[in-house]
Amino acid sequence: MPKLARQKRKKALRNAIGFGLLTAALYAAVFMNQGTVMTYFTKGGMYAALPVLTAFIFSFAHGAFAGNFWSAVGIEASKKATRVKLPATKAAKRVRPRPRAQMSV
Amino acid sequence: MPGVEQLTFIDLSLYSVIFLFVLGFIGGLVSGFIGSGGAFVLTPGMMTLGAPGAVAVASNMCHKFPKAMVGAYKRYKYGQVDLKLGVIMAISAAVGVLVGIKIQEFILAAWGEAGSNLYISLAFVVVLVVVGGYVFRDAMKLKKSGKEAGTTKLAQKLQSINLPPMIHFKTANVRISLWFTFPVGFATGMLAATIAVGGFIGVPGMMYVVGASGLVSSASELVIAFIMGFTGSVKWGILGMIDIRMTLLILAGSLFGVQLGAIGTTYVKDYMVKFVMGAIMLIVAVSRGLAIPNYLTQLELMSVSSGILQILSTVSYISMVVALGTGCVIILGAMFKGIRAEKAAAEVPEGTSYQEMKAS
């Protein structure tokens, strides 16, 4: 595996572990406090913000975990299909040293 | 709302947890690929666990918009989402949802719950057979001919009509009058209010009426799903009907699935989206068709024994899961085939000189 791809996968693995721990903590927090959560989250009215915001928070944390998980195990979008077309560049001008008259004695 | 005080929220067992996770994954995978589809397995699924119908619908909605957001974001990065198209469709879809709900209320009042269920099942069967059949046939034609999908005659005609305001959809590469997007969006919303899945009209509508490709249509559908799901969830949240535990368990699986589905779209030809969508729609049509005798019996238009109705009901649900499971198998198969092909093409060892490569 080319070096760059190896580094990318290592980074994805680190991120996956990090976000995975965060997600696990969030799920534990909700499910270990089911009674309290369900009381407030189903109160209705303004409390609607609770389930909606919770869904957003979990989607960021867990979404990042899941995305990094797939990258870490090597499942990623096709490079061909998602290749960004770079604009054509002009070749850089080579700087040649100015020829100097040499005199060998 | 009457009856809310009597709502019970179910106790979750280990079985329920795993069940919701797996169902969420399958629904997410299909959604990520064809732009819609998890709802009709998830909502009945939660109800088989004992959740009241309204709670099931509310909790599903609350999972739908974050899942759609993650899926849309991923496919936006792959250059498939036409944001303008999604947002404009969502506006007319919102109107369609309101009208759809009014029609449901009218039928419920006139013919009761059995009548309402019959209406919903008939809508399922008619729409899914007609639209699904067309989409599936189109996919098979493209697969055989090997050509890239062209714009339908209808879309070409509509695009040529100059009825201001004309909108240019950059990613979809389509220029069409705003007025022609309204029926598609409206129908999407109406169908969503009736069978909970608007994308089965939304995606084919964008493909065959507006003229966008299968990949752009299914990707942009996720934007519509996000907007409609969010507004629906706020409404259900205000009524206090969201069981956040079920929502989060489904999300646990679906956020894996939706990203995998999105990745899968980058490895397949455009017709594959149509193929999976058509196949799923046709199998689900059969599944819902099996539920119709039950409602006809309740309305005393038909007489079938309760034993047979029970069997039909079970087969109906299992075939629904089979529909999505089939979709998953096709998606994963196509994706792994594409990944293997790309890896094989890139399998040139580092440091191989040009001569060595030519010789190998």
Describe the secondary-structure layout.
The complex is a heterodimer of chains A (105) and B (360).
Chain A: H1 3-31, H2 34-41, H3 49-72, H4 79-82
Helix pairs in contact in A: 1-3
Chain B: H1 14-34, H2 39-48, H3 53-77, H4 83-145, H5 153-160, E1 166-169, E2 174-177, H6 181-195, H7 199-210, H8 214-238, H9 244-265, H10 270-289, H11 292-298, H12 306-345, H13 354-359
Antiparallel strand pairs in B: 1-2
Helix pairs in contact in B: 1-2, 1-8, 1-9, 1-12, 2-3, 2-12, 3-8, 3-9, 4-6, 4-7, 4-8, 4-10, 4-11, 5-7, 6-7, 7-8, 9-12, 10-12
Question: Overview of this structure, please?
Answer:
The complex is a heterodimer of chains A (105) and B (360). The model of chain A has no long low-confidence stretch (mean pLDDT 85). With 105 residues, chain A is an all-alpha fold. In chain B, strands 1-2 form a two-stranded antiparallel ribbon. The N terminus of chain B is likely disordered. Chains A and B meet through helix 1, helix 2, helix 3 and helix 4 of A and helix 3, helix 8, helix 9 and helix 12 of B.
Which key terms come to mind for this protein?
heterodimer; A: 105 residues; mainly alpha; elongated; B: 360 residues; two-stranded antiparallel ribbon; 13 helices
Summarize the structure.
The complex is a heterodimer of chains A (about 100) and B (about 350). Chain A is built from four helices and no strands.
Strand content of chain B: under 5%
Distance between the termini of chain B: 74 Å
* Straight-line distance between termini of chain A: 57 Å
- Described by the principal axes of the CA atoms, the overall outline of chain B is globular
What is the N-to-C succession of helices and strands of chain A? HHHH
Question: In DSSP terms, counting alpha (H) and pi (I) runs of 4 or more, how many helices of chain A?
Answer: 4
Q: Given the structure, what is the number of helices of chain B?
A: 13
Uncertain runs of chain B: 1-6
| Number of strand segments of chain A | 0
**Structure classification of chain A:** mainly alpha
